[in-house]
Design brief:
globular; four-stranded antiparallel beta sheet; 2 domains; Umud Fragment, subunit A; alpha+beta; 12 strands
Amino acid sequence: MDTEAQPTERDRSSHPSVPEDASDPEGAEGRSRFALAARITDRLPGGRISLTLLVCLLFLLLLNAFVVKPFQIPSGSMENGLRIGDRVLVNRLAYRFGAEPRRGDVVVFDGTGYFGDADYVKRVVGVGGDHVVCCDEEGRIQVNGRSVDESTFLYPGDGPSTVSFDVEVPEGTLFVLGDHRSASSDSRDRLGSPGGGMIPVDSVIGRADWIVWPSAHLTRLHRPDAYARVPAAGAPKTAAGAHG
């Protein structure tokens, strides 16, 4: 007897094949999206290149509206740090999640109804509740009794101010000055105007963080240390604080 094992056919019932007409929802959905994209691309002049440009434009518009905004420096009021024609990136999110402008910040704000129908860039010198005075015996501005050495960013040859003032900054507003004091129209010039020269925090567009053009001026704008020792509004004044 031939006892050699005979080859047997594998039981096909244990491994059912997938019918050719089986549904594939994920694949169908992917093909549908691809077909839609292809139709959109075919209808656009320039095809995929135009679609890519449109997507990039939409991204830039959203970025400009909610994250950063380019701003061109229109005057010499913030020299030498910011020069006429410099382009800065304004951080729109800097004060959107509970943070408030701080002394020393360079901010861009809408001056409508306060400075004029335009956007302006200035440095924050006083925030809500601050007592800002010019000047002490050495000609320096005082904030909450503390004299501030602004020499690191003031325009060469300029003093802190040729105009005397003594102001209390209302809550929710800012007292702002240009770094080129002799060429800046700022809060000092509007103390008798509606609003008293103060800028509502709600009018601040954002904080200027970078100079991006021209490339030779590329730099990040840092908050100076000059205001670091200024006490909070309402804090007890000390002899050291009065003289800096």
